[in-house]
Specification:
The protein folds into two domains: about 200 residues, Enolpyruvate transferase domain (UDP-n-acetylglucosamine1-carboxyvinyl-transferase, Chain), CATH 3.65.10.10; about 210 residues, Enolpyruvate transferase domain (UDP-n-acetylglucosamine1-carboxyvinyl-transferase, Chain). It has 14 helices and 23 strands. The longest helix has 13 residues.
Length: about 425
């Protein structure tokens, strides 16, 4: 089993070019199956989740070529409707293939998806919405069988602005007869990226990034070349790496608007942040201020995917901070590992109270999920002595070449196989 070993205390300085967004490329890759067309996609990150989606597409019959950060997908030869069980269970995002495959084939068989264990993330909204579009859905023995030879546009009101449900509806509605309107749609930038990719291929979608998305069904899609947006969570993680080490990091290839929620909280913590069109400099403070309240919310609020990382920072802040996790129920698994490193954190349901300590100390730790694993790396950068992090396959699901990039910035970190 691979693990990371860190010796904390080094100040990080230098430049990072932010890779393509994991949460944007996965729905885009799912969307490639819809048109039986060719897609050439750039800025594709080298991540385990992307590899899993690539393996699923190949198993469905697609042809794929991968060169560095470019991926070419030809979905014309697609000839299967069953998503491989072991791959679906490895990655939560596999569920968005339901909408895409219904668009393409009119039927799909998929097992309940896996991924990080961060509490129940029911897919009821996905299934209800697909039924509203005319799909018949049968659930048995851990599998979902879905059929819908002629989907019809309709109005769908989401109970919660779920990113996955919004994406699944868009994918299912691309070739549906008539117009589909999604109300209370998720507003995340990754949904805008999916809209941009699909529209470039000939779809007719409006409103992504707002709470109302309108999809007019089309008969076919054309070949397309597309550049994936940069990963705002990767950018946010490196921002905290700079903050926690009193560092000075310049991030290239970022979209500043996507980072406003994180920027606001890091300024509260005492960081100096300067930005221009697509780059940002963050200078960590000598003393980290506590933050009265960090509440995770759907975009444009503070992202749940940055909660674990900011907790690592606040564990050595001057004073007491409160984090309220409103998006996922079980997203405090990193807390016991940070406590192992000397953090003073108490959790009450969905609320964590963090009393800043003078310093963290290195310890043997285990990554329980993707973002929690990143928080342990950040804590290890600032901790006194040696930190070991096991189960790092979680981290590899969302960060490309993480340890090498941190080493180039001055971290004492190594990957041990």
């Amino acid at each position: 089993m691979e693990k990371l070993i860190l010796y904390g205390g080094n100040r990080l300085t230098g430049e990072v070019s932010v890779s393509g967004a994991k949460n944007a490329i996965l729905p885009i890759l799912a969307a490639t199956v819809i048109g039986g067309n060719e897609s050439t996609i750039f800025n594709v990150p080298k991540l385990r989740d992307v590899e899993v989606m690539e393996e699923i597409l190949i198993a469905l019959g697609c042809n794929i070529k991968r060169v560095d950060n470019m991926m070419w997908v030809d979905s014309k030869p697609l000839n299967q409707i069953k998503i491989p069980d072991e791959l679906a269970r490895e990655m939560r995002s596999s569920i968005i293939l339901m909408g895409a495959m219904l668009s393409r084939c009119g039927e799909v068989i998929i097992s309940y998806p896996g991924g990080c264990e961060i509490g129940p993330r029911p897919i009821d909204m996905h299934l209800k919405a697909l039924k509203d579009l005319g799909a018949e859905i049968e659930e048995s023995h851990g599998f979902i069988y879905s059929k819908g030879k002629e989907l019809k546009g309709t109005e769908i009101q989401l109970d919660y602005p779920s990113v996955g449900a919004t994406e699944n509806i868009i994918l299912a509605a691309i070739k549906a007869k008539g117009t589909t309107i999604i109300r209370n749609a998720a507003r995340e930038p990754e949904i805008v990226d999916l809209q941009n990719y699909l529209n470039k291929a000939g779809a007719k979608i409006n409103g992504a990034g707002t709470s109302i998305v309108i999809i007019e069904g089309v008969d076919q899609l054309e070949n397309v070349t597309y550049n994936t947006m940069p990963d705002r969570i990767v950018a946010g993680t490196y921002m905290i790496a700079s903050a926690i080490t009193k560092g000075e990091i310049i991030l290239k290839n970022v979209i500043i608007d996507h980072l406003q929620g994180v920027i606001a909280k890091l300024k509260e913590a005492g960081c100096l942040i300067y930005s221009d069109e697509n780059s940002l400099k963050i200078i960590g403070p000598e003393k980290i201020n506590s933050i009265e309240m960090v509440q995770t919310l759907p975009y444009p609020g503070f992202p749940t995917d940055m909660q674990a990382q900011i907790m690592a920072l606040l564990s050595i802040a001057n004073g007491t901070s409160i984090i309220s996790e409103t998006v996922f129920e079980n997203r405090f698994k990193h807390v016991e590992e940070l406590i192992r490193m000397g953090a003073n954190i108490k959790t009450f349901g969905k609320v964590a109270i963090i009393k800043g300590v003078k310093e963290l100390t290195g310890a043997k730790t285990t990554a329980k999920d993707l973002r929690g694993g990143a928080s342990l790396v950040l804590a290890g950068l600032a901790a006194k002595g040696k930190t070991e992090i096991e189960n790092i396959y979680h981290i590899k699901r969302g960060y490309e070449n993480f340890h090498n990039t941190l080493r180039e910035l001055g971290a004492h970190i190594e990957l041990v196989k």
